[in-house]
Amino acid sequence: MLQTLYDYFWWERLWLPVNLTWADLEDKDGRVYAKASDLYITLPLALLFLIIRYFFELYVATPLAALLNVKEKTRLRAPPNATLEHFYLTVGKQPKQSGLSGRQVERWFRRRRNQDRPSLLKKFREASWRFTYYLIAFVAGMAVTVDKPWFYDLRKVWEGYPIQSIIPSQYWYYMIELAFYWSLLFSIASDVKRKDFKEQIIHHVATIILLCFSWFANYVRAGTLIMALHDSSDYLLESAKMFNYAGWKNTCNNLFIVFAVVFIITRLVIMPFWILHCTMIYPLEFYPAFFGYYFFNSMMVVLQMLHVFWAYFIVRMAHKFITGKELGRSQIRDVESERPSSWGRDPQSEEESSSREAALCIQWLHSSTAVPCLPHCPLHSCNPK
């Protein structure tokens, strides 16, 4: 049965146009072609990336944070309280109900919630690592693609497809990019958890699938263009975040506007009207559509939908800046991670949230037979059930 599944998975009609087989892509006459076995190296490379990242954050990003005067605000720890801790862990961190409030309970929730938030230094080190990688990847991507004829004439992407040999620069560009996205997927649980956590997982998985499939089906020319396009704006966002954490607001705002412009041009103009047109329309001029054609373009559409999703929030933040509202630390975490409810949150809404939390906590405490009333509860004199 396993052999049947293996044979069906590698059936030529899934991966290659009609009348072509894997034998047509065997290395010969000094020409090297993409092979699935090439991708095995990406997993150990991903682990190497995690090791490099650890030492980079320790010996490069941390001293850089000190140089830029990245300071962590003092966070008061919530005093030990088994009852509130039980409520916090089992009922929720952000209750939505309303009712009576208690100042001691509000303060405890506020401090306890702050304890779970990642430190400013952790955010800075993560942004520094990604900035460094994305900048190097963008420069490398341009070096790999800019001298190729298909960079200027997208129809040449498909000339001779799929019998297109691979050169060393394309091989290493692919392997390093794929390994990096594997490392992001491996570390996502320990990285700063943002509000687009699910979208980030979808993005990483879709990117890995696209890279793997494009290598299997020898969509390498299109793949290198797509990777270089994506890397063109990411380093700008990470640099804006770095300066934001360092408190350089003007520099942060200016970099963010540049990032927003580059993002809109690359993801909402070049991506759909040039790259997607290249992968959807031009291939049909050279060969009939097959499963790989539909699958690859389906994943491209998923990525494009994510671009539209993130562009909406980027435009909103850019509008805030243009209309004179500063982009504070609470707003420009990762632009791609924000939701409407968290944008521009004012202190009053934070207090209302704390009151709701305290109210629900008190209601829960007084409806429970398992726990006693709190010493500082405003209803301490009442008779709990």
From TrEMBL:
Gene3D superfamilies: Homeodomain-like. It catalyses: sphinganine + octadecanoyl-CoA = N-(octadecanoyl)-sphinganine + CoA + H(+). SMART domains: TLC. It is a multi-pass membrane protein. The keyword Lipid metabolism applies. The keyword Mitochondrion does not apply. GO terms for molecular function: sphingosine N-acyltransferase activity. It comes from the Eukaryota. One of its GO terms (cellular component) is endoplasmic reticulum membrane. It is found in: Endoplasmic reticulum membrane. Residues 122-323 form the TLC domain. Keywords: Endoplasmic reticulum, Lipid biosynthesis, Lipid metabolism, Membrane, Transferase, Transmembrane, Transmembrane helix. This is Ceramide synthase 2. It comes from Rattus norvegicus (Rat).
